[in-house]
Amino acid sequence: MRKIRRLAAMGMACMMAASALSGCGAKSTEQSTAAAGGEEKTTASGGETKKDSASSDKVKITIWTDNRHDLEYMNKVVDEFNKTNDHIVLDYVIQTENYENLLSMAANSGQSPDIFSQISGEDFKNFAENGIIQPINDYLTDEFKKVNEVDQNLYEGFNVIGDKIYWVPCGKRSGSRLIYNKDIFDKLGLEVPKKVSDLPELAKKITEAGAGDYYGIIFPGASGPFERWLEHSAEMSGVTLYNYKEGKFDFTGFKPYLETVRKMFEEESVFPGSASMKIDPARVQFAEGHAAIHGNASQEATVFTEQFPAKIQWGVAQLPTLDGEIKGAEACSPNTGWMMSAFTEHPKEAWEVIEYFGSEKVLKGYLEGGYSLPISKYMEDKIDKSKVGRMADFAGADYEAVYPVVPSVTPDGENFRDALWNACLPEGPSIDDTIAKLNQTYNDALDKEVKMGKTKRVVIKDYDPLHPGAGTVEYLDK
Amino acid sequence: MNSNNSFGHRLKKSWDHGDIPMWLMLVPTIFFILVMSVYPFTWLIRYVFYDYNGFKAYFVGFENFKRMTGDGIYWKSVLHTFEYAILKLLFLLPLSLVTAVLLQKRRFGSGLIQGIYFLPTVISSAVYSLIWYFIFATYNGVLNAFLQVIGIINQPIDWLGSSKTAMTAVVIVAVWGGFGNYMILLISGLAGIPSDVYESAQIDGANGIQTFFKITLPMLGPVLKVVIMLAITTAFKDYESILVLTAGGPNNRTHVMFSYIFQMVFGTSRAATQLQIGYGSVLSIISALIVGLITIVYLKISRKMDEIS
Fold first, then answer.
1. CB nearest to B249's CB, from A122, A276, A410
2. pTM of the model
3. DSSP secondary structure string, A300-322?
4. What's the gap in Å between the CA of B292 and the closest CA on chain A?
5. Distance CA B101, CA A86 (A)
6. In a mutagenesis test of the B interface, which of A95, A97, A418, A430 is the best target, namely the one with the most B β-carbons within 10 Å?
7. pLDDT, average across residues B205-231
């Protein structure tokens, strides 16, 4: 009896060991199914997957994106491609969390998608230098170049390194605008502020008139409030975090912004709960008419018409500046571009997909749908502007430009956006101390990382704040 | 021949003692511990001397340790961790004990109430924290409206946005989300106390309070010891709901050790800085040592709980 029991125990142990090991091996089986281009269902964590019904002889191209706003349109584009293309099938996956991290982890573990939507300027250099993405110079066709005016949209350190082109922007996000509740402004007979210093009085007046129903201004305190528009208003006033002429960080110019926001908080003219508010609840409160002033870039055009249709009349205006004058360009972001993984086994087919997404046909619908603004004159002329809806309010600013990429450094302490916002809060640290500390930590980090060879100091001796991209960029090792 | 015999003999002896089946049964567990725990830990140790952003590692020697000693936000987050854990345990343990005692007997609806209290344990903390995020809302928030109706406050409180109340808010969510789990563990401990002990106490004329302090609590000792240890280690490692509710804000007021480390290693959507995996590794090791030290101190102090009178 004892023997039988022991044999049973032994059998169980073997089964457990076998199941554990087979569990580990399951992945390779799955991967081979994917390689066969069959019916395998890819579900990445936090992602939404659009499945295909491919036949096994087609090449499967996996696409990752962090864009959710254009999902409906892109689904149609992908469906049509899958129906009409005879040798490629697309698997279009939306990744919502930690996009860049997920991509780098996927690359490190050999699970990189074939193509993916462009990543932020801060990470671009890392992706290129560490061989996660590959240049697409050899694939660019004349038609693609014509539609997207490739030669006019090359930005060093943003989509290009030297003469290697890694991705091509097919659209752009505007700089930020002041978005305001027209009903409230009209009712109270108010003018859109031209100067930052006008804001506290204006917000106070609106809050008093609102008597608890609506408030002067709203900030998404938990969703990068400083970069939404304060940073851009500073750019228009000639204030940037990096002094391009001298090649060092300088946060001193932000002081009036911190003082203004703190004043509005202290006077209780800011929508209650703003300090901990995420972007979507803030948008909802604006759309419901509970806040008179909000600031953000062109994505709000679709947000207030589709995602949270506004119950009020809303207007879009140029951001206020420090003295009412425009002394610097406002940063806009080239977007709607696709990168090709360096690990793709099907670069030719991957390019075919990128070319299709950047074709006149696809872009016309995309831009007319208001999902992005045209970056090329060619596409601007091709689209029916009457179809772009409220996106038109964000287009056509002649004071926008693409800024040279600031050296990406890791300071010993808070990152500047968190630190600057914390100094805006009434219970926050001293404004002067915050600025002094940021100047210290960022410049120390720059000196250290330049010495380590981790980054290069960017200097533009002929830097012009109104035309930041026009100067001669030098990359220094000291 | 002799050695063969002795090897075979030893093998048979091990087999008879059950050693071989035991080790075979342990193989899967050992394998996973090595792969999922030991290997990542050695990986972590390696990077403490590097500035590693997920792409390229730059050797920096003891720079990360030097930085750690002067990192005000980290040391504040250590203090916040203690504040959070103490506040959480102060409310969570008595609450779970009281509810366990009240709900252990089979009464009408006690099973349902147990289920309701236990529910947060099986819901993702990210999901219920999001619900609490809306409950705490300053403008039209449920909690503020309720407190205003019953006359406790005159104007809404910015629960998550004010440095004065943010920690209280995250502790409320932690207690709400955690006590049901410990309640169930304590109920199973209570079920193990023999009923004849209570009967003799009743015959001796002990009242409810006397029974609780003289019988229930001492006899619950061993279970309570484990429950408290689990509660302490969990409280010191909590960070998920904090990330959802406040992301460590306002002004870093609710940053605990692990929320700070998480942001360092995995980044935040608004950080605009590169990942700091090397420095995050140093902080992880120091934080693990802090939690380990507290657990050891607790185990030393709690030895008495094993001695059931």
1. A276
2. 0.82
3. HHHIIIIIS--SS-EEEEPPPBS
4. 26
5. 69
6. A418
7. 89
